[in-house]
Every structure is written in structure tokens, then in C-alpha cells.
Amino acid sequence: MVKAIEVSGLIKQYDGLAAVSGISFSVEEGEIFGFLGPNGAGKTTTIRMLTGLSKPTAGNARVLGYDIASEITKAKKTFGVVPEQSNMYDELTGLDNLVFMGQLYGMPRPEHRTRAEELLKTFGLFERKDSKFATYSRGMKRALTITAALVHKPRLLFLDEPTVGLDVMAARSLRAIIKQLKESGITVFLTTHYLEEADILCDRIALLVKGRVVVIDTPARLKAMAEEKPALEVSFKMPLVKAADELGRRLPGLAVVKVDDRIRIYGGDADVVLHAILGYATENGTQVASVSSLRPSLEDAFVKLTGLSPLVMAAEKGGR
Amino acid sequence: MWYENLRGIYYIALKDMKTYYLKPPAISWGIVFPVAWILAFYLRNPRNFEELVPGLIAMTVLFSTTAMEVVVINFELRLGSLERLLLAPVSLSGVLFGKILGGTIFGLMITVVVTLVSVISLGIFNVNIIYLILVLLPSLLVFSSLGALLCVLVKEVFEAQTLANLPRFLMVFLCGVFMPISSLPPVLKQIAYILPLTYTVDGIRQSFGGAGDIAIAIDIVVLIALIPVLILPATRLLARRFV
């Protein structure tokens, strides 16, 4: 079976500096493959090479079986690209933008209009089909940019940072759309620096740092790699100043750490730990407000596997 | 591949007409500027206005094709919409030629209007239509290609507009629009012969039954030869933006 994407030793250098340093990976048809990494990791450079906007310095890649060096025009008919920038034509209406895309891809005259209208309905833009792109909200612009990449019915969709700059609700609805695309059989290659987004959407994730793929696996397995010791987090209805020190004494050998008004206890038998917590609460005249078992997040996995601070990713979130 | 490129060129040209060219600023710049120049010369010497008609048409060709062409590519590069065209199954040279064709069609429309109004209002009916078409079509392509080349030589929209004024004004004064090339000093005459507007003005003048400095066949051949001379470097310069 032909892979959706096969990349082998792909290198991109600008003025001798490596933007992508010999990456290799493959993407199966029908999966959502996440390319996760901080800004400057080489995510967009990789997409540009795979979609023919930039020539690799070395290495090779095939997209849906087509060699990107010699068969890029054939490959272009099979994939759609949603760039980071919503780059449709301000002067054209939503419908005209989509019809123009259908024309460029050689869709027959009645079909491109029907397809455009069908997509506008699916993405909730039909009411605004005759409004100029310039008048659309940021979320609507993003949605139209995605529909433009789908007009020619691609088998593979490249999504470059699709939710950057969107408000919470728009980002959430866009994620739902991405899941629908997968359900309709489209392979999705998604670049993002939002860890939680990759966790929610992706079947497999490649962590990219400084132009190199550090690891590729499912979100669950990546998180399992970060799991060291089980941990419990407890909070009391009446916060106690010395709770962490006292619990530390009652649970020798375990790490007890105060995090804001909560206490984290790493390792040990859950039954013993719970007894110690309840005993301490009773003796000090308070009650347990909450107890939860902590699971490692993708952020924990990212930190462990890349050695980078999560701030490297969080710093770019723009307050989201 | 060639078929996909032709289709892409056609639809890009149509799209550019719709988005940029058929807008009041483009139309006014394409028509008003040459008309204003000619009006100034007409007021100075109304009796010999017929002699200025070939120059008026040539200037219309020059300004109508270059006015937007020097802007659109950098404008779309800045907005990222040129990349959208390159993501479609169309080659980079196909995208560039689509842009050039858009400018050419717009220039043709404006030039036809200016020519018809001039010919009818002045009662000039001894026009060799075949010669005129053979001179105008390559001229429109040449100046649209020149606009594209000037555009990709620089990165900013305003830089291209400023840069375009240098060859445009040089050509207006040296290429026989207002005064015959034969009356120029020898050094300026040599410069005139390397500027494309010289061949456009000379060819149009002969189409209108006037005397030319160069054989009309040479005018046409030079203009046709200049098209790839301008398009090839423009393609290479544009390709450098996508290394």
C-alpha cells in the first residue's frame, strides 16, 4: 500500500545553516499525523518542501507515491495545503475564491461551483458566500482557507498551524472539522506548537527540535515514556501551612511537594498514601477537598524527550 | 503539463482582471496619464495633433500595461496569495505568464478605446490594421513583461513603482513620442535604439501611413524578440524567492 508521505534524509539549508537536518518519517493514509515543535524547529520548511514551494538541499520524499523532485505537478493534484496565513483574495467573494481554486485545478464548469457551495454549507459560510473575503472574521477566513484546499477533493491535507490566532471557540470548531476530515478518509499532516491540540487530534506525533525528529509515536505512548512514578495530588478545604512537611514525615521515602495550595505525593502505595492524608486531615480538623491521580501530559513527554522547557512552546501561545 | 499550465495562465489572467485591472484606479491611471501628456502637447500646438496620435497610442500601451503589472506580483507575494497559485498544478513560469497576460489584456482594452477615439475624432482612416495589430500585440506583451521584471527586481511594492518611473519617463522622452528620433543627438539616438518604445512608436507611426526610421518588419521582430528577453530573467528572479 502506498504511504501518504514517505520522507528519507530530507535536508534544507539556507546559506549553510540547516533548517531541516536529515529527517525521515512516513505517514499512513487516513491518519492525522502531527508535526510538533517550537517555532524555528523546521515544521513549515518541511511542509514547503513536501508541497513544492521549496527545493530540498538533499534527501528525497514521496507524496502519495509521487516523487516531489520529478512529479510535483502530479502530486499537487492529490493534496491540498492550508498555509499558516489565510491567503485568499480579499477582493473576491468567498464563492468566487473557491470557484477560482476549482478552475485552477481543472474541475469542470458546473462541478466547481456545486462543490464550492457544498463546502461553504459544510463550513457554515454559505450565508456569506457573496461577501468579499476582506470582510470575513479571522475564524471565517481560516475556514475559507481550509475549504479552498478541499475544493479539488484532495486525499491528503497539509495544515500548517491551523488554529494560530483563533479565539477559543473558533479553534475548537476547527478541531472538530479536522476530525471530520479524517472520518471522511482524508489524511491530515498537521503542524502545530500547541501540545494539547496535537494530543487531542493526532494519531501519531513527530517531535521536531532544531530540524531533527526526536521521536515519533502515538500520544499515549509518548506520555507513557514520560511516566516515572505514580503521583497523587491532594487539596484540603482549609489549607494548612505545614501540610507538606507533615505528610513528608508520615510518608518516609516519598517525594512530597507543595504546588500552590495543593500537595503532590510521588510514588508509594496508593492505599498507604490515602490513609496518611485522611489521618492528617482528621488530626488537624480539616477535610480533604480533592484527591486526584496525576497522569503525565504530552507537555511532560515533550519536556522529557526533548530536554526543552515547556516555556519554549508556551511562549508562543499568545496568551491562549 | 502544458495543458495544465495553459489553463492556469488563462484563469490567473482572468482573476487578475477581476481583482485588479477592472477597478477605477487602474483604468484612470492607464488612460488619464497618457491623455494628460498629449493634452499638454495639443494645447501647445493644436495644428499638428495628428502627428502625435502614434505617440499617444504608444504611451497608452506603456502606461496601461505597466501601471498594475509593477505592483501585482509583489503585492501577492506580501499577502501570500502568490504561494496559493504555486500550490496549484501550475508551474512558476505559468503563474508569471498568467500575470503578464492579465496586464496585456488590460492594456489591449485601454489601447483599443484610446485608438478608436483618436481615429474617429480626428478622422484618420488611412490605417493599416494588420500592421497596427502586428505592432500592438507584441508591444503589449513586451511592456507587461517589463512591468513584471521591474516588479520582481525589488521586494517592496513602492520600490517597484519608483523604479518603473525611470524607464517609463526615459522612453517617453527618447523614443519618438513627441519628437522624431532623427532629431536627437547621436548619443541619445543610440540609447533610443535599445529602448522598446522606440519600435512601438515607429511601428504605429508607419501603420498610420507615416514615415518610419526603421523598417516595420524590424520593429515587429525586435518587439517579439524582446518578450523572452524580459520574461526569462523575471522568471529566474521570481524563482529565487522560492528556493
Element pattern of chain A in H and E = EEEHEEHEHHHEHEHEEHEHEEHEHH
| Total count of strands of chain A | 14
Biggest sheet record of chain B? none
Proportion of strand residues of chain A: 25-35%
Annotated CATH architecture of the largest domain in chain A: 3-Layer(aba) Sandwich
> Mean of residue pLDDT of chain A?
88
The CATH H-level superfamily of the largest domain in chain A is P-loop containing nucleotide triphosphate hydrolases
Unreliable runs of chain B: none
Estimate the helix proportion of chain B, in percent.
over 70%
User: Total number of helical segments of chain B?
Assistant: 10
**Mean of the pLDDT scores of chain B?**
90
* DSSP helix fraction of chain A: 25-40%
DSSP summary: helix tally of chain A? 12
Uncertain ranges of chain A: none
Q: Under the CATH scheme, which class of the largest domain in chain A?
A: Alpha Beta
**Number of domains as seen in the coordinates of chain A:** 2
Number of strands of chain B: 0
Q: Which term fits the overall shape of chain A?
A: elongated
